[in-house]
Amino acid sequence: MAEQSTLQITGWNVWYGGFHALRNITASIPASQITAIVGPSGCGKSTLLRSLNRLVELEEGARVQGEVLLNGQNIYAPEADVTEIRTRIGLLAQKPFPLPMSIFDNVAYGPRLHGLHRGHLADVVEQRLRQVHLWDEVKDRLKRPAARLSVGQQQRLCLARALAVDPDLLLADESTSALDPHSARAVEDLLEELKNEYTIVIVTHNLGQAERLADYVLFLWLGELIEVGPAERVFGQPTHDLTRSYLERRFG
């Protein structure tokens, strides 16, 4: 079980070449809750999420300014180990991407790479597959290629793989948008369970999903943080006219 993590974003800016994608974002992400980043297409949701594990740096022409503190440590400090950061901050992508290897080896990949749980890999694999409610479905075919799983099973496998390295924080970037409704709800249920052990940040274009899952909300508009707070308050009594208009247009 990972320790509760505290994430603080201060004065965060991102540029892609001359385009100022995120402007002076400052927010605290509460521990052991699900925080949803919402807003219209192109507002910077995924850019902000990818900033939280330094994947944004991989974009051509990207430049950043500000601080992202995880448990008080700036993940963008010159001495920060990027590989370690991306291990501590797991990512569940929009589409599942199982590695071209067996089900077992997919879950074991991270621990092997980072020298974790030596001698106990079988226990780790079983634990994580049970954690995502996949063990009973695959326990008799662990050596078979992961690509043979259904898309919904593949996404749960990718979640098990992310959890196998004991992350502090879990990011989910529209992680149910490629799934059928039944599989999507299964992943939602998992995230709801996992927030008791992990701090979770999701990006979703589905406000119904945000209402179901989120404890806390960041609303972005054209790269700026317009409103932030508990989900019940933001969705029920937004304080900013832009938030109100956006929610009325989407929910009304």
Please describe what this structure looks like.
Helix 7 links the parallel strand 7 and strand 8 (about 200-205). By secondary structure, the chain is an alpha/beta fold. The protein has 10 helices and 10 strands. It has one domain (about 5-95, about 160-250): 3-Layer(aba) Sandwich (Rossmann fold). It has helices spanning about 45-50, 80-90, 105-115, 120-130, 135-140, 150-165, 180-195, 205-215, 230-235, 240-250; strands at about 5-15, 20-30, 35-40, 60-70, 75, 90, 170-175, 200-205, 215-220, 225-230. Helix 3 (about 105-115) packs across helix 4, helix 3 runs parallel beside helix 6 and helix 4 (about 120-130) packs across helix 6. The mean pLDDT is about 90. The protein has a 6-stranded mixed beta sheet, with helices on both faces. The chain starts with 6 loop residues before the first strand and ends with a helix. Helices cover about 35% and strands about 25% of the residues.
CATH superfamily membership: P-loop containing nucleotide triphosphate hydrolases
Largest sheet, spatial ordering of strands: 6-7-8-3-9-10
Give the amount of beta strand, in percent. 25-35%
Biggest pleated sheet: 6 strands, mixed
Radius of gyration: 18 Å
CATH architecture: 3-Layer(aba) Sandwich
- Poorly predicted regions are none
What separation lies between the terminal Cα atoms?
Answer: 41 Å
Number of domains: 1
Count of discrete alpha- or pi-helical segments spanning 4 or more residues: 10
The general outline is globular
Question: Which series of helices and strands comes N to C?
Answer: EEEHEEHEHHHHEHEHEEHH
Q: What would the CATH topology be?
A: Rossmann fold
